[in-house]
Amino acid sequence: MIESRLYCGASSEIVSPSHTSSSAGAPGAVLERLGAEGVRRVYVDGGAVVSQVLSAGLLDELTVSILPVVLGAGIRLFQEAGPERWLTLASSRPFAGGMVQLRYLARR
């Protein structure tokens, strides 16, 4: 079984499923610690946590899923995420239900 690593940007403790482990702390410190453990790919989810990773300049790849629903109002995709970042479209994948997934690579 592949072990999943869960990074939680929340201030409270979380309960991890048995096949995951969790880490909390500043994104750079968590990624450095995971890298020292041999982890090479990390999945980060949630607008607040993704915003922290963006602000720290640690984003290598970003996947955005677009659903065919217009809400009219809502929460921003990202919170304050530091300076402007340019991305390069690496792939797009349409799904039967109308969702489209866009995968971007960070420009360095």
Q: Please, could you describe this protein's structure?
A:
With 108 residues, the chain is α+β, with helices and mostly antiparallel strands. The chain is globular. It has helices at residues 27-36, 47-55, and strands at 4-7, 20-23, 61-66, 87-94, 100-106. The protein folds into 2 domains: 1-43, no CATH class; 60-108, no CATH class. The longest helix is centred in the first third of the chain and has 10 residues, at 27-36. The N and C termini lie far apart (34 Å). The strands form 2 sheets. A 3-stranded antiparallel sheet has the order 3-5-4, with no helix packed on it. A two-stranded parallel sheet has the order 1-2. The protein is built from 2 helices and 5 strands.
- Write down the domain tally: 2
Relative helix content:
10-25%
Provide the gyration radius in Å.
Answer: 15 Å
For the largest beta sheet, what order do the strands appear in spatially?
Answer: 3-5-4
Number of strands: 5
Q: What is the first-to-last residue Cα distance? A: 34 Å
Structural class: alpha+beta
Number of helices: 2
Unreliably modeled segments: none
The biggest sheet, with number of strands, parallel, antiparallel or mixed sense and barrel status, is: 3 strands, antiparallel
The gross shape turns out to be: globular
Percent of residues in beta strands? 25-35%
Secondary-structure element order, as H and E? EEHHEEE
Query: What is the average per-residue confidence, as pLDDT, rounded to a whole number?
Result: 79
